[in-house]
């Protein structure tokens, strides 16, 4: 199974970027993994939040393949413990060819993206910046990989 993490715009914080890059490389030792960045929209002052979500959604939908299993990191998604995420990920590895995780833009997802998604997961009930969510998501995917392999990174 190939796993892809998609997000809108470049990661601005150099410390977050270093962590994301590190975890992405580590994940690559366990499964094919790729990060895709959708360029941020320009001149958003003249469009509504809804229009911004729609335009970001259109760009995202172009990246997806019909057979992709699409998971949105969404505040209204189902929360899993790290061990549960590992079990969930392992199950997807047995049934999905390409697993695509998506972190939305500052205003979330368009209705079309919600319709296309297969599932919504939440990283926490807390609110994090979109920059920080990228780091947390990659760390949790790495943690899930180590749990699946029975490695000592995760402690109960």
Task: Please summarize what this structure is.
The protein is of the alpha/beta class and 156 residues long. It has helices at residues 14-27, 49-63, 82-93, 111-116, 130-148, and strands spanning 2-8, 33-38, 69-79, 98-103, 119-122. It has a five-stranded parallel sheet with strand order 2-1-4-3-5.
Following the backbone from N to C, one meets helices and strands in this order, namely EHEHEHEHEH
Radius of gyration: 15 Å
What is the count of β-strands?
5
Q: How large is the count of helical segments?
A: 5
Helix amount: 40-55%
Bin the strand percentage. Answer: 15-25%
Q: Helix- and strand-based class?
A: alpha/beta
Strand ordering within the main sheet: 2-1-4-3-5
Shape: globular
User: What distance lies between the first and last C-alpha atoms, to the nearest angstrom?
Assistant: 27 Å
Integer average pLDDT: 95
Poorly predicted runs: none
Largest sheet: 5 strands, parallel
What is this structure's SSE topology?
Blueprint: E1 2-8, H1 14-27, E2 33-38, H2 49-63, E3 69-79, H3 82-93, E4 98-103, H4 111-116, E5 119-122, H5 130-148
Parallel strand pairs: 1-2, 1-4, 3-4, 3-5
Helix pairs in contact: 1-5, 3-5
Please give a handful of descriptors for the protein shown.
alpha/beta, 5-stranded parallel sheet, 5 helices, 156 residues
């Amino acid at each position: 199974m190939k796993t892809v993490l998609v997000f809108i715009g470049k990661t601005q914080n150099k410390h977050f970027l270093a962590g994301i890059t590190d975890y992405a490389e580590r994940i690559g030792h366990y499964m094919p993994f790729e990060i895709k960045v959708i360029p941020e929209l320009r001149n958003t002052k003249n469009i509504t939040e809804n229009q911004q979500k729609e335009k970001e959604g259109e760009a995202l939908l172009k990246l997806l393949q019909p057979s992709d299993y699409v998971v949105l990191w969404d505040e209204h998604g189902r929360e899993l413990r790290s061990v549960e995420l590992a079990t969930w990920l392992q199950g997807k590895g047995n049934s999905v060819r390409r697993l695509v995780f998506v972190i939305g833009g500052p205003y979330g997802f368009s209705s079309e993206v919600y319709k296309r998604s297969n599932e919504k997961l939440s990283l926490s009930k807390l609110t994090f910046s979109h920059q920080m969510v990228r780091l947390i998501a990659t760390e949790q995917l790495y943690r899930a990989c180590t749990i699946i392999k029975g490695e000592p990174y995760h402690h109960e």
